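Researcher: Here's a chain I'd like modeled. Treat it as a single chain, no partners, no ligands.
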Amino acid sequence: MIRRFGVLLALMLVAACGTTTYPMPYQPTGPVAGARPPGPLARVSDVAVTRRTGREDPAWIGTIRGGYGNPLKALQADRPLDQVVRRALDDALAARGWLAQQDPRVDLLAEVSQFDANRYARLEATVVITLRLRERSSGRVLAERTERARNVTGSVLALDTGIFASPEELHALMLRTMNEAIDRLLDSDEVVAALAAAR
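Model: Modeled as a single isolated chain. Structure tokens:
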């Protein structure tokens, strides 16, 4: 009987571990007015990923951990992180009416220096993106801004932790955190003024 219980427990632990893959689409975190001035003039030209945590796996976005910090379940995006952020930024530009499908006047260059989510008892997600706006005709940098978005939810007394924790909840928090960072970047006075000044 004890042996059968041990085998059953081992099977449950193996089933609880593993990697789950999720899409990471851009979704505005608040109201976004489309067709905003100055109109379609920008496009993402480069995304560099310089993060330390997760650098071994270009698609990794988060981990559910056990009580000792041991990884139990990994979360991955459905594509490498540079592609995730590039698509999300382009979609965010399109939502505002700023995406130029051809011959953009402004190139956006992004650097992702942090992009990770973890769950011990509470759920935590952090995204740090630096955005540079470069005028294509002159090569002049119009603006540079760094945005850090961080979200922490849940209780330290939560019971649905470890192998019982939901990867979907951590994914949802990571997605919201990415979208908050992007919205804050593009809706900042600095970026809006730089786009308006582009020739």
